[in-house]
C-alpha cells in the first residue's frame, strides 16, 4: 500500500497546506505576542484572584477538556496511521528524516491543526487561576516553550515533526481524557496520574533520541535540519525531562517508603 492509497477524508485532501505554510511564515512571530499575553495572564491573573473567591467552573472545564481530548484522539489516529505506514514501508530512519509529514494528504491538516492548537491550549491555565489551584513552573513554562518551538518548527518544516506531533497528540489524548474525568467528578485511580507523567517522561526521552539522530543524519540530503534547531529542541526536551522527572519523584515517589511503613505499623 502506498501513501496515496491511505484513507483520506475530503476535508483533509482539500486543506491548502501552501497557504497554511505561507501564513505561518508571515505570522509565526505572533507566537511571542501570545506568550507575552499569556505571561500577563499567569502573573496578573493570580494577583487578581488573590482576594477573590475561587470559581467552580466544573462543567465548563469538563467540556473544555473533552473537546481537547477528542481533538487529540483523532489527531493521534490520523498522524499515527501515517507514521506506522512510513515505519513499516520505509523504516525508522525515514520516519525521523521525513518532512513530507507536513504536506502529505493524510497529515497536512493535522500538522497545521497541532501547531495552531498550542495557542488555545494556553486556556488551560485560566481554569487553574480562576479555580485558585496550584500553578507550578512546569505548567506555564511548558506551554510557552511548546508554542514557540511548534510554530517555528512548522515554519521551517523541520524533520522529526512527525514523531514530535504524534507523540504529543497521543499523550494529550490520555491527559485531557483524565482531566475531563476529574472535572466531571469521577474518582480516577492514582496510578492513572502516575502513568500519564511516566508517558510524558518517555515522550521527552524519545524526543531527545529523535533530535540526536537528526543531528547524526542532518548532513544527508534526505534529512534536512540545522544545528540551531537541534540545539534549541534538545534544550527544550531536556528541560522538560528534568522537570517532569522531578515532578514524578516529588509527587509519587518521595516519602513513599515512610508512608508504607506507617501503614504497616
TrEMBL record:
Keyword Endoplasmic reticulum: yes
One Pfam family this sequence matches: ELO
PTM per Swiss-Prot/TrEMBL: N-Glycosylated.
Annotated signal peptide: none
Location of this chain's protein in the cell: Endoplasmic reticulum membrane; Membrane
Reaction catalysis annotation: a very-long-chain acyl-CoA + malonyl-CoA + H(+) = a very-long-chain 3-oxoacyl-CoA + CO2 + CoA; hexadecanoyl-CoA + malonyl-CoA + H(+) = 3-oxooctadecanoyl-CoA + CO2 + CoA; dodecanoyl-CoA + malonyl-CoA + H(+) = 3-oxotetradecanoyl-CoA + CO2 + CoA; tetradecanoyl-CoA + malonyl-CoA + H(+) = 3-oxohexadecanoyl-CoA + CO2 + CoA
Record protein name field: Elongation of very long chain fatty acids protein 6
Organism the protein comes from: Ataeniobius toweri
Gene name, Swiss-Prot/TrEMBL: ELOVL6_1
Amino acid at each position: 500500500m502506498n501513501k496515496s492509497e491511505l484513507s483520506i477524508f475530503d476535508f483533509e485532501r482539500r486543506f491548502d497546506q501552501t497557504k497554511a505554510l505561507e501564513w505561518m511564515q508571515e505570522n509565526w512571530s505572533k507566537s511571542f505576542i501570545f506568550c507575552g499575553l499569556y505571561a500577563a495572564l499567569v502573573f496578573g491573573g493570580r494577583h487578581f484572584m488573590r482576594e477573590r473567591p475561587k470559581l467552580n467552573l466544573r462543567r465548563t472545564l469538563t467540556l473544555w477538556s473533552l473537546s481537547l481530548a477528542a481533538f487529540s484522539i483523532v489527531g493521534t489516529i490520523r498522524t499515527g496511521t501515517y507514521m506506522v505506514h512510513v515505519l513499516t514501508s520505509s523504516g525508522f530512519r525515514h520516519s525521523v528524516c521525513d518532512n513530507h509529514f507536513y504536506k502529505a494528504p493524510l497529515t497536512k491538516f493535522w500538522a497545521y491543526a497541532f501547531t495552531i492548537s498550542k495557542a488555545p491550549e494556553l486556556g488551560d491555565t485560566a481554569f487553574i487561576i480562576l479555580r485558585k489551584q496550584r500553578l507550578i513552573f512546569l505548567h506555564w513554562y511548558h506551554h510557552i516553550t511548546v508554542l514557540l518551538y511548534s510554530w517555528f518548527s512548522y515554519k521551517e518544516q523541520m524533520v522529526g515533526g512527525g514523531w514530535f506531533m504524534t507523540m504529543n497528540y497521543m499523550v494529550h489524548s490520555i491527559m485531557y481524557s483524565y482531566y475531563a474525568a476529574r472535572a466531571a467528578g469521577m474518582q480516577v485511580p492514582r496510578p492513572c496520574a502516575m502513568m500519564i507523567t511516566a508517558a510524558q517522561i518517555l515522550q521527552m526521552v524519545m524526543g531527545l533520541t529523535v533530535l540526536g539522530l537528526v543531528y547524526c543524519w542532518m548532513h544527508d540530503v534526505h534529512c534536512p535540519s540545522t544545528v540551531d534547531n537541534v540545539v534549541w529542541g534538545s534544550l527544550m526536551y531536556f528541560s522538560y525531562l528534568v522537570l517532569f522527572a522531578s515532578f514524578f519523584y516529588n509527587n509519587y515517589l518521595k516519602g513513599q517508603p515512610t508512608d508504607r511503613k506507617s501503614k504497616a505499623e
